[in-house]
């Protein structure tokens, strides 16, 4: 039996084009509370060197900077980095934003006391290489803290719905595996002692299921890019499918959307 050879570089090139489409921070900014809770769980302190990997517009980096940590954000989507710089300037937060690939961080070994990622590094297609990089840049005895969507929550359902319209590359493992303790154990082995593995909920709030669908089609880069490839009939069907995801998980009874999605908050010590 021959193993599948995965062209991770080509996959990342397509992913990057997706994240640079639309306006992801319009979605990402709504997730700020996830970063605040992660920074709290990781016990970020003033003066510590903190790295936010696959930072997007810098939610975790900015949360760390509010605690007077020395915060750096790294991402390969330059438009997201620029919005991060603009946000940090508006809030007078001294965050450094650096262009870089989560699977090949342009940073020295052991150069950070804490390495964080909020629903970011989970999208690196080569899970093992990304995990290895998190370990490499974290100082021994430092902290690695991750917030990752789970396979069984609303976002997991959303990704499976999108996958019916645009199947993922063969051999690439689902991003939501990062939201399971077993997968973290496989990726990090005995290099990280997980001291906290807590399943939390984030609630997506929108005017209606249709508003949720429209917002993600307009702003969530990979979905925006996919939408641009569909003819009118398929786009209408795709839009309805996205609305159905919000409807399936919705707990509001007033016509709006208040739909919880589970994510795994993982905090560990780098051995």
Automatic annotation (TrEMBL):
Pfam short name (any one): Methyltransf_11
Domain Methyltransferase type span(s) in chain numbering: 51-145
GO biological process, one term: methylation
GO MF annotation, one: S-adenosylmethionine-dependent methyltransferase activity
Keywords of the record: Methyltransferase, Transferase, Ubiquinone
PANTHER family: 2-METHOXY-6-POLYPRENYL-1,4-BENZOQUINOL METHYLASE, MITOCHONDRIAL, METHYLTRANSFERASE
Protein name as it appears in the record: Ubiquinone/menaquinone biosynthesis C-methylase UbiE
Source organism of the structure: Allocatelliglobosispora scoriae
């Amino acid at each position: 039996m021959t193993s599948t050879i995965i062209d991770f570089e080509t996959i990342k090139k397509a992913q990057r084009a997706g994240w640079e489409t639309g306006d992801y921070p319009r979605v990402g900014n709504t997730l700020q509370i996830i970063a605040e809770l992660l920074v709290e769980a990781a016990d970020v302190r003033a003066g510590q060197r903190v790295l936010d990997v696959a930072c997007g517009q810098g939610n975790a980096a900015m949360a760390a900077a509010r605690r007077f940590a020395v915060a750096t954000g790294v991402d390969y989507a330059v438009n997201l980095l620029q919005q991060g710089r603009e946000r940090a300037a508006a809030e007078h937060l001294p965050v450094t934003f650096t262009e870089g690939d989560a699977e090949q961080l342009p940073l020295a070994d052991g150069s950070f006391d804490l390495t964080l990622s909020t629903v970011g590094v989970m999208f690196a297609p080569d899970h093992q290489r990304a995990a290895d990089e998190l370990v490499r840049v974290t100082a021994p005895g430092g902290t690695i803290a991750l917030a990752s969507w789970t396979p069984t929550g609303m976002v997991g359902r959303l990704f499976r719905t999108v996958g019916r319209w645009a199947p993922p590359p063969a051999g690439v493992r689902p991003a939501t595996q990062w939201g399971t303790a077993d997968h973290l154990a496989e990726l990090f082995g005995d290099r990280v002692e997980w001291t906290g593995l807590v399943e939390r909920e984030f609630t997506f709030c929108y005017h209606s299921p249709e508003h949720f669908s429209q917002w993600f089609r307009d702003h969530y880069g990979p979905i925006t890019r996919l939408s641009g490839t569909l003819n009118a009939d398929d786009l209408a069907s795709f839009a309805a499918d996205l609305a159905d995801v919000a409807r399936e998980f919705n707990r509001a009874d007033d016509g709006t959307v208040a739909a919880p999605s589970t994510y795994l908050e993982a905090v560990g010590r780098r051995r």
